[in-house]
Amino acid sequence: MMxxxxxxxxxxxxxxxxxxxxxxxxxxxxxxxxxxxxxxxKAQKTDFYLFSNSQDNQFMVVPKFGARxxxxxxxxxxxxxxxxxxxxxxxxxxxxxxxxxxxxGFIFKPDWKGTRDYSGLDPGGYKVVSFKENREIVLATTFRxxxxxxxxxxxxxxxxxxxxxxxxxxxxxxxxxxxYQYLGMDFIHKLKNNSQAGLDRIIGLWGLxxxxxxxxxxxxxxxxxxxxxxxTYFEPLPDDFVRANPDSFxxxxxxxxxxxxxxxxxxxxxxxxYVSKAAEGESALIMMSFPVKPEARYPxxxxxxxxxxxxxxxxxxxxxxxxLAFGELECHSWALDLPGGTERxxxxxxxxxxGPHEVIKKIGKKLVCAGFAEAHLF
Length: 378
Description:
This protein is mainly beta. It is built from three helices and 22 strands. β17 and β18 form a beta hairpin.
């Protein structure tokens, strides 16, 4: 009788263990999902706005946290990196101003040692200018500062227009029968010079998406050669962190080692793609598409190369441990011509996909570059 009771008990324990494994995974995913973030924000009376497409994939905009798109859920998975505590207001798609340092910068101090106060920019609480439920939101903020050399006063208004974007493959017969999840955003980034004094091509807009490691950036370039990208921002880039492909290069977002790569405007094609594993047999793709002016001046560049032109694309792997590690897809505008009272825009399209590996490869081949399916994946 005792042996039978032990056998039954062991069977029950085994059943509980087998049942609890998928449940634990579901709980873990739920904690990092939009529902959990929304509950935390509601508890602190922090306003947020949710947008959902026809597949019920969603993104969240939080005015208080720099109007950033804090999270983007596709097929139940947040494809953006968001700080485990959403009340920290870190992660997602955020706004920056280039350059960070040098004479015309105001993020790093003039000697590049430490940073100045840029809280007006980030988190920089935005006001909602207009809102059309589940269609679009327009947000703006104004901040004032001065360039490192003291010669230019910045009185700027930043505006972010965000809308749902249709799948560019929606009407393509080659993709009609394929099964995948999609979420898109039309993001128009605007910068206005509120002062009477002009700002003659010294600063630019900068949009970046923070994404969870580990994964691979695939960057199409006009010509695949060593000087199409540079890695002189921080520590030396390990040779095994970057690979050349026939029409692109691959960059490893490691998650526990800091490194950064820049792509010059003459080499950039205005596309950044990030591929990572989403689940067994599935991949996720984050893609940014934006204009590039190959002959223009770009203001952000490595600290040690201030005499050169800046980069149109930057890719960054952060080195915080565990859940605080992330990568960044960074797209830059050219240095904007801003006479007094004028406003300039920098439009960005964001496409997010989740689906079987082979489907994601086919999407990448169509939207990123012809050699996407054969590109090296770390």
